[in-house]
Amino acid sequence: MPLEIEKLLHLYKGGGRPPLNELVNGELLRIFQCGVVKKELASFGLLLPAPDKSECCRERWFEGKFINVSTNWREHCKELRDWKNKDGRNVYDEICEHCDREHAYIAETQNEPIIYLCHGGMVDCALPIVVDGHTVAMLFAGQKCPIEGGFWSDDFIKNYATQNNISGSFDAKKESIKRNRKIMDEMAKREPDRNVPNLIALADKALNIWPTDIPEILKEIKDTAGQLSQLAEKTIGYQLNIIRGYFTSKVAKLLPESDDKFWTGFSEFLLELANFYNRDYALFYMLKRATDDSMKAVCTIPEAIIRSRLLAIERKRFFPLKNADLSCEPILLKPSEAKDRLFSDSYFFDSLCYVIPLEVNGPLGILVMGNFGRKGGYKLVERELRFIKEQFQDVSIILENRRQLLARDAYVTDLSHEIKSPVAAVSFAARNILAGRVDLNQVKPTLEEVLRRLKLLKMNIDRFSMLERLLSTPESLKPAAVPVYDVAKECQSEYQDLIGKKGIKIQVNPELKDLPMVFTNREAFKHALGNMIHNAVKYGDPDTEVIVEGRKVRTEIRTEIRIDVRDVGIPIYPEEVKLLGQRNFRANEAIKRDPSGTGIGFTIIDRFLKIAKGRFEVQSIPRNDQRHHVIISMFLPQ
Amino acid sequence: MAKILLVEDDPLQREQYALFLRSKDGGGHDVEEAESATKAVNLIRKEKYDLVLLDIMMAYGPEDEKNPEIKDFEVDYGRKMGVYVYNEARKLSKPPRIALISVVDDYGVLSEFPDVVGYLSKYFEEQELLRFILHCLSR
Q1: Which residue in A176, A416, A478, B40 has its CB near the most CB atoms, within 10 A?
Q2: Chain B interface residues (partner A, CB cutoff 8 A)
């Protein structure tokens, strides 16, 4: 792994949560020094949040590190904070800091600047600098002493906040003021010569400072925060893209590999991803598809699989994909370390499990990432979730490409099968007849079967050829007025011959005669309708009926001719409808039924309807016996 | 003359290959036919064959749909039936020789069937099939 990637992975460990502190500190200070600090009449402080600050254990104050560089502290504040008590502690400084942290916390919670009266009676502002939803720093500005040494009233502060577009105003907490007073009293008592500063001593020389233009300062600070935000956004975006690219390329490299190697590599990728996101496990369920044998699950500990199955049963809403098969065996990568905690923790999966549905041209699978038994622990923020989704969008595209690659292989195999098998059979039959190996009474049936095979062969070659025309030279398919009934009858007679021993009857409803003609290419239309009928025959149960019927439908936009082909057999689930146009999508089902499929029937229908400005709909209505009434409807403009 | 089980789902191909192999030109073998994986496995368990000629790309037959062993058996859809027959045959104490016939011109599939005695890609001529059978029987 390149060093740069390794560093980045380490830096972003935990997912997309940006390590903003490390990233922006340098820039923040630079901008801070060049910009707002130039203001001589106001003082500033900068508080950087602690990098390991987590939601579960935070206190009611802002954790982090103060950086008070080049600040124009008022003299009295500076002297007070430098003052040490007899034990050598900067007691006053500690209290000031505590007060700052408390108000920083309020500002962070509100996510807006606040103005407040500090424990020492000074007017301060706390301004959170928020980059991409994270508080990267807290700026303090102010240290405005009350006019004429007096304290500003609450009303004055509130009005000041309103006038200057500051969201909130707060007083220092009473206990802070109390502590402050106590220390000041102590200072006053212990420093009779008044050489050591305290608030009272300083009152004479430093308190009478008029407030400067706080709105101007605020504006400048906000501008700074904006610049910083842009910079951080850009840098983080760049770095995250590198990480995203790293993970994506890992999967992309596997694309041409065999199934075994692909899934082994994929499991390694998932393990690395889970580690990256600080997750105990990652599960990836791939939806059962035409060319994927089953869903794949990968996890870091076996209990994740067990629990996810229970979860699937308990909460079906998390697994909305009907075909999701949870029976696959996981690829275990690490022995269990969390067995004892399992099932005893009621928070298991509840707060820390992220279920992300993946889609590319339709549902593809589910990614589940989570931790075991960490109550109220680290939650992903919006950005991290977005990052995972983006990350997996890439991976989904790769998986979809692989699926298509495999589908293409299957297509080539099918094409080869469609041509070679009948040729081999016919060739052997011819030689057997010639050599007198076939009984005389068997010659006729053999020839009839040979003829059927050759018809099928012709039909399949015609299909491939039509698909090529639809894809590459659609302009060659000239439209004309086509009577639906005539075409349906032609399809009926052609396909009825090819059905063989399945015993399915094709019926064309005479009402089709009354339909207006459709304006389309007759040959392509016949192929599309023929494929609908052939599909119904392929997936239909033996000794049932395939019915072709139609009617005129008026929509808000236009009048359409609706042609339905009904069968009883293997269902088509709603999530599969979008995918029907892909080659070989139903091939896995076809192989169970009838070996004569080419896997391109729906591709032809889909392509034809796109060119003819039509559409298709699928209804699959369950019966009691796990079979479905399947109605595939083609809508064409009148 | 050998006892051969021909496992092929396509009836025309099965009949024509069997006719040839039974004929004098084809070696006059004792050929039994199985149109589905389930039937093939049942025959292999009962009878002793010198050679099982197995089509690895077979569709589900009606018997296969009722077979719980196949239902629980998860393999790549295309070769599922072939792998099932192969695995079941290998479980026998004295497994028969198994040779594969397939439309797929990919010898990589052999990795799934490590103990087969031969692999013949369709399309083939009579003499090719004859030589193939002899070769397999000699292994």
Answers
A1: B40
A2: 9-13, 15-17, 19-20, 22-23, 25, 57, 59-60, 65, 74-78, 103-105, 108, 122-126
Q: Which residues pair with residue A49 across a beta bridge?
A: A64
Q: How far apart are CA A237 and CA B112, in angstroms?
A: 46
Instruction: Give dist(CA B118, CA A345) in Å, integer.
Output: 56
Which residues of chain B does A423 touch, with a Cβ-Cβ cutoff of 8 Å?
Answer: 123
Count residue pairs from A and B with Cβ separation < 8 A: 81
Q: CATH for B3-137, among 3.30.420.10, 3.40.50.720, 3.30.360.20, 3.40.50.2300?
A: 3.40.50.2300
Identity of the residue in A293, A431, A591 whose CB atom sits nearest the CB atom of B75: A293
Question: What percent of chain A has a predicted confidence (pLDDT) above 90?
Answer: 1
The CATH code of the domain that includes A631 is 3.30.565.10
* pLDDT tens track for A61-108: 777 777 665 455 666 676 667 777 777 777 777 777 877 888 888 888
Is there a single domain that holds both residue A83 and residue A181?
A: yes
CA distance B44 to chain A (A): 23
Lowest pLDDT segment from A296-310, A513-527, B88-102: A296-310
CB contact under 8 A, B23 and A427: no
Position A167 scores a pLDDT of 56
Task: Please give the residue range of the domain that contains residue A313.
Answer: 254-406
Structure tokens at A162: 């309103």
Q: Give the DSSP H or E segment for A356.
A: strand A354-359
- Token digits of residue A348: 């298991």
Q: Is residue A56 domain-shared with residue A116, that is, in the same domain?
A: yes
Burial of A548 (0-12, 13-18, 19+ CB in 10 A): buried
Query: Cβ contact (<8 Å) for A431 and B20?
Result: yes
The reply to whether omega before A354 is within 30° of 0 (cis) is: no
- Minimum mean pLDDT range among A140-149, A504-513, B60-69: A140-149
B126 CB neighbours in chain A (<8 A) are: 428, 431
Q: Which residues of A touch B (CB under 8 A)?
A: 258-259, 293-294, 328, 410, 413, 416-417, 420-429, 431-432, 435, 437-438, 446, 449-450, 453, 587-588, 591-595
Same domain, A102 and A190: yes
| Residue A77 sits in the same domain as residue A188 | yes
- Residue A579 DSSP symbol: T
Instruction: Pinpoint the alpha helices (H) of A214-338.
Output: 214-252, 259-276, 302-314
DSSP H helices, A277-363, are: 302-314
Q: Which among B13, B57, B75 is the nearest to A424, CB-wise?
A: B13
Q: Are A263 and A396 within one domain?
A: yes
Instruction: Sheet containing B3-7: give its strands across.
Output: B30-34, B3-7, B51-55, B97-102, B118-121
The CA distance from A318 to A448, in Å, is 54
Chain A positions in Cβ-Cβ contact with residue B9 (cut-off 8 Å) = 595
Cβ contact, residue pair A420, B123, below 8 Å: yes
A604-620 pLDDT, tens digit per residue, is 888 888 888 888 888 87
Alpha-helix residue ranges (DSSP H) falling in A342-439: 382-434
Joined together, the tokens standing for residue A391 give 């990350």
> Where among A345, A377, A406 does a domain terminate?
A406
Would A207 be classed as within a structural domain?
A: yes
Contact between chains at B10 and A595 (C-beta distance less than 8 A): yes
Instruction: Count Cα neighbours of A29 within 13 Å in the Cβ-side half-sphere.
Output: 12
pTM for the structure as a whole: 0.53
A163 and A294 belong to one structural domain: no
pLDDT tens by residue, A452-478: 888 888 888 888 888 888 888 888 888
As given in the structure block, the two tokens for residue A535 are: 């599909």
What ipTM does this complex have? Answer: 0.88
